[in-house]
Amino acid sequence: MTTFPHGTTFPHGTTFSHVTVVGAGVLGAQIAFQVAVHGIPVIAYDVDDQALEAARTRLQTIRAQYLADLGEDQRDAADAGLARITLTTDLATCAADADLVIEAVPEVLALKERIYAELGATAPETTVFATNSSTLLPSQLADATGRPDRFLALHFANHIWRQNTAEVMGSPRTDPAVFDRVLAFATEIGMVPIPVRKEQPGYVLNSLLVPLLGAAAQLVLRGVAEPETVDATWRIGTGAPMGPFQIIDVVGLRTVHAISSASDDEGSRLWAAYLQTNYLDQGKYGVESGEGFYRYS
Fold first, then answer.
1. In the CATH scheme, what is the homologous superfamily, with its name and number, of domain 205-289?
2. Which is it for strands 9-10 and 2-3: parallel, antiparallel or unpaired?
3. Between β-strands 128-131 and 100-103, what pairing exists: parallel, antiparallel or unpaired?
4. Residues with Cβ < 8 Å from 7, sequence gap 6 or more?
5. Angle between helices 205-221 and 244-251 (to 10 degrees)
6. For 242, which DSSP code?
7. Which homologous superfamily is 2-196 in?
8. What are 154-207's pLDDT values in tens digits?
9. Are the CB atoms for 262 and 106 separated by under 8 Å?
10. Strands (E), 7-146
11. Residue 7, by phi and psi: left (phi above 0), alpha (psi -120 to 50) or beta?
């Protein structure tokens, strides 16, 4: 049994039995895979057939990365996980049987609001909604979900089976029992649950990471140093395995661009324009496309 601070107890493996992931991009596909590998059927939604084909390719890549990190003895589990994932473009019905919906669409408030309005019309009243948003607070989205008491944030880091934190953050209207239930779910799918007790932009992880990435961006924009020099300095000086631009490549330049372009900060908008001109317009999205600040085989 798993017990959390408010006293709610759930038998292991039964917290949520059917999960829907909305958005099968870089992180959404990883979330779907991580949930499915731990024995839970998943429906993963994306916008069209082209996006689903990209998701299929992405899931095969994730499977290979998973086995490289955790060992070939996990092959059967990985294959069984893939078999539990159903891909769909039908948003109207993808959550009809879901106990939990995890939203992982781009960081655009109006888009997320529209998605939640559609999901709320078909999902059962008891379904819990969770956003994987890195920048928006649950209170900004709660009304759009139609179920503010059963809505919160469930935030994963990239390579979630390896960097296995799951930050759980509610709004002031989130039911404490729902908060505890999602903490239990995070444990069941192999994550280390991080309870965030008060709404905080960036949660814990990004509150530490974003200032680093922003400082690195300004060093490049101002012509102080090249990305490779910045990364080498950080790795050598701190012993960290990756520099900030290597991290951006993993996160995905499209995600960083979306966050930066939505910012009110002039420096962030200049960084978004720089990424658009020098990388995105050339199809350089980071690890997902094989090239970003670095090239990948």
1. N-(1-d-carboxylethyl)-l-norvaline Dehydrogenase; domain 2 (1.10.1040.10)
2. antiparallel
3. parallel
4. none
5. 110
6. S
7. NAD(P)-binding Rossmann-like Domain (3.40.50.720)
8. 999 989 999 999 999 999 999 999 999 999 999 999 999 999 999 999 899 989
9. no
10. 9-10, 19-22, 42-45, 85-88, 100-103, 128-131
11. left
